[in-house]
Amino acid sequence: MFQLLVLFITLSLGSVAIADPSQSTGEDGFQRCAACHLPGGEGIPGAFPPLKGRIASIASSDEGRAYLVAVVNVGLMGSITVNGMPYMGVMPAQGSNYDAGGISELLNYSVQVIDKENASTDWKPFSAAEVESILESESATNSQGTARLREALLAQHPELR
Ligand code: HEC
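^ thats the input. predicted complex w/ heme C below
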């Protein structure tokens, strides 16, 4: 019930956000994510996992990059732990809201702005072509594939558990 209330409040706040033409497209694209993960990406413990503090690390490996594209494309549901905190939520698929370029921009914004403290200077930004090729892989188009990508990521980076 609390989670539903929070969801309702964050979604209503999201819908009254006024478009600012000076915003980058990545920031624009992130507004949908911000409705749940909050504009600064901190999330809400137990309801919406944080992106700040971990998305730069996730985006620093191939498994993690594929995982991020898959989560945006097909969403995520079921039980996961994030920084040791259990989540049992539903993230709706976001793939229909963006093209490959839009996904690359919002992920670049997530790493370079939302998680800038952890983004390394030699980090390679996503390109539309990279996102497109990930979207062509089986794993990024269904929830089982996304779950496998998460397992592969956590096996390599236990610090993200
Ligand atoms: C309606 C709410 C909602 C929206 C909108 C949303 N998410 Fe999520 N997101 C969630 C929830 C809930 C989870 C956890 C799902 C679970 O418990 O299995 C999640 C999980 C994630 C994860 C996995 C985190 C991890 O550490 O494994 C990532 C990455 C993510 N979201 C990114 C995004 C991005 C990027 C967007 C915008 C394109 C977005 N989310 C939009 C609710 C949302």
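The pocket of heme C is lined by residues 32-33, 35-37, 48-49, 51, 54, 68, 71-72, 76-78, 80, 82, 87-92, 94, 106, 110, 150 (CB under 6 Å).
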